[in-house]
Amino acid sequence: MKISNIKYQISNWEGGQSLFEVVVSLAISALVIVVLVSLVSNAVRNASYSKNNSLAAFYGQQATEWLRGQRDSNIAEFETNVLTPSWCLTDLQWTLSRACSLVDVIANTLFTRQVNFSISTVNGKSIVQADVIVSWEDSQGTHEVVNSTNYADWRQR
Q: What is the domain partition of the chain in residue ranges?
């Protein structure tokens, strides 16, 4: 075989990509893009949930501290108010003496904040358990953060 014939055969083999190669490369590219979009979507969803969970914990702690201040400033009024088992605390006031509905959100947020009271007596002292429930709803469903605290009249001995 002559060298010129070998050069001719090699030049014919270098003639470009076949349709099969193009389809395979497009399929691989599409797969990579789908995986990247899925990863980014999950990262955004997790970041959003994390932010909302932190805000809900903040609103729960805010209500817990407000209740502590109410107890310390006027124990008689506090004890009267906790006889109502549920309060909706949209603005940290004793105004909504009922469970929260979907429209009872904290101003300019997507969160509802409800406190449920239960009273028990231990060694002759009244103990008020307050469960502050901050909830929100998103595309993944309904979520809530619960903050439980016991309150007592610290002046009782």
A: 3-152
